[in-house]
């Protein structure tokens, strides 16, 4: 997620009009500590039992680093614009996909 943090301004038009929620099985305390310590600009959802993660199509039993986080994009209208059930944080194509979603839902932000 550090690569994502570092590309946030470009990918998400510096957070204008969109919300990103990354859902993982980490505890609320771990999520808050990680977000604070590493300066993440987006929201983290703690889902220790995997129910929300599974609802978005992720595999709550995937304990690996890659693909263990669901990413939800909420557009300016307050609706879910896209869900990546198993976000591959080391794949540049994953970031390109997110940028395309953001550009689609916020065309005037360019």
Q: What is the topological layout?
A:
Layout: H1 2-6, H2 8-11, E1 19-24, H3 28-38, E2 43-46, H4 51-55, E3 70-74, E4 80-84, H5 92-105
Parallel strand pairs: 1-2
Antiparallel strand pairs: 1-3, 3-4
Explain this structure to me?
The chain is α+β, with helices and mostly antiparallel strands and about 110 residues long. The protein has one domain: 3-Layer(aba) Sandwich (Glutaredoxin), CATH 3.40.30.10. The chain is about 35% helix and about 20% strand. The chain contains five helices and four strands. The protein has a four-stranded mixed beta sheet. The relative contact order is 0.21.
Annotation keywords:
four-stranded mixed sheet; 18% strand; 110 residues; globular; 5 helices; 4 strands; Glutaredoxin; single chain; alpha+beta
Short account of what is shown:
By secondary structure, the protein is of the alpha+beta class.
Order of helices and strands: HHEHEHEEH
Radius of gyration, in angstroms, nearest whole number: 13 Å
Helix content percent band = 25-40%
Number of domains: 1
Task: Give the CATH class.
Answer: Alpha Beta
Any idea what the CATH superfamily is called? Glutaredoxin
Oligomer: single chain
> How confident is the prediction overall: mean pLDDT?
78
- Class inferred from helices and paired strands: alpha+beta
First CA to last CA: what distance? Answer: 24 Å
For the secondary structure, the number of strands is 4
CATH fold-level name? Glutaredoxin
Tally of helical runs = 5
Major sheet attributes: 4 strands, mixed
């Amino acid at each position: 997620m550090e690569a994502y943090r570092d590309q946030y301004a470009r990918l998400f038009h510096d957070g204008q009009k969109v919300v990103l929620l990354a859902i993982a099985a980490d505890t609320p305390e771990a999520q808050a500590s990680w977000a604070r310590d590493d300066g993440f600009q987006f929201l983290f959802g703690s889902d220790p039992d995997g129910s929300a993660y599974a609802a978005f199509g992720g595999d709550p039993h995937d304990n690996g680093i890659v693909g263990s986080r669901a990413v939800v994009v909420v557009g300016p209208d307050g609706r879910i614009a896209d869900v990546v059930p198993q976000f591959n944080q080391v794949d540049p194509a994953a970031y390109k996909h997110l940028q395309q979603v953001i550009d689609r839902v916020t065309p005037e932000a360019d």
